[in-house]
């Protein structure tokens, strides 16, 4: 089935008023395209390492909406034109042309699954729950993951860097803290590699459900992997529930800016001599993370590994 797409070219200053106009007309859901750069506060809040390069912001914006049924199109377009006439008395509505096109109906919720295929990290096979076991990998350690729509698939270089470091340092007695656990891929891999138990934290409440489902897919009991929603960086209640001087390994595959904040808190949760494995660090942020860790008297950097443009820094609690 095809959807009918209508795109209004206007100005960035008129977007909010036009969005409100569309809502009053009865248009449900819009798409806004512009080249306004993100502010420093916005990028900090999003913890983005690499921003897309945008063309110069010339004050032009496009506001699109989609219709399946065109029986009411004449009324909608008439009310848009009348509304733009009214708004033009208060704000520059720009070109105000409306371009019609067609777009394929897609299952956006599940469309991403076509890109998540089984992959290996050395002798570990990680595959989505809906894919069959490749015969050529039947001898490998199997990890089954369904990230849902909220978390990554684990194919990213940073996840692979963390898995290799976990394998290197964990023992059958290891208690693991997985900060930013997401789908639970690192914690589940640690358990499959023989770790004793895992405690995960994540800002997103969906992590609790995702980890539970992935534990079941891997035939691992829920008592082996507890998950808590919250921010370990500044929430005392979360810090208390996680526990102090308890973990042999803390793993955090997040982003450099978060790790810089996190390194101040993590040592109090590690046992003496415990290992702090980090990744999610783009190479241009490597020195900033190392500088922060080097200034922390409780941590000693013991290893740095690389894959593509990404970096994993491993430290030990003194």
From TrEMBL:
S-adenosyl-L-methionine binds at residues 159, 180, 202, 253. One of its GO terms (cellular component) is ribosome. It is found in: Cytoplasm. Keywords: Cytoplasm, Methyltransferase, Ribonucleoprotein, Ribosomal protein, S-adenosyl-L-methionine, Transferase. GO terms for biological process: methylation. Its main location: cytoplasm. It catalyses: L-lysyl-[protein] + 3 S-adenosyl-L-methionine = N(6),N(6),N(6)-trimethyl-L-lysyl-[protein] + 3 S-adenosyl-L-homocysteine + 3 H(+). One of its GO terms (molecular function) is protein-lysine N-methyltransferase activity. Belongs to the methyltransferase superfamily. PrmA family. Methylates ribosomal protein L11. This is Ribosomal protein L11 methyltransferase. It comes from Hungatella hathewayi WAL-18680. The lineage of its organism: Bacteria, Bacillati, Bacillota, Clostridia, Lachnospirales.
